[in-house]
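Worked example

This section walks through a single chain of length 100. The input is the sequence exactly as stored; nothing has been trimmed or padded.
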Amino acid sequence: MTITVEDASAESRYVARADGATAGFAQYIRTPELIAFVHTEVDPSYEGLGVGSALVQASLDEARAAGVRVLAVCPFYAGWIARHPAYADLLYQNRSKVAD
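Given that input, the structure is written out below as tokens.
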């Protein structure tokens, strides 16, 4: 099985295809400096076959190449990044402080 991932920017989502069939997607909200991944779904018939991991890795690699930070609102993204610390540097950190 060959998994490909493409950015369907008109739909604000990355789409994974397995041998040409839609297998899953990762919905996002994007600004010029940040991409927030808010929801990921994998078709049940493709669960456990690496579709979700392919979505995350491809989208994070594109974020890195574009120089944007990542906000992992989606629990799948947050968990994947926690298990792959080489991607932790992409995470958005709110460094602003509230005045006393």
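What to look for: The chain is about 25% helix and 35% strand.
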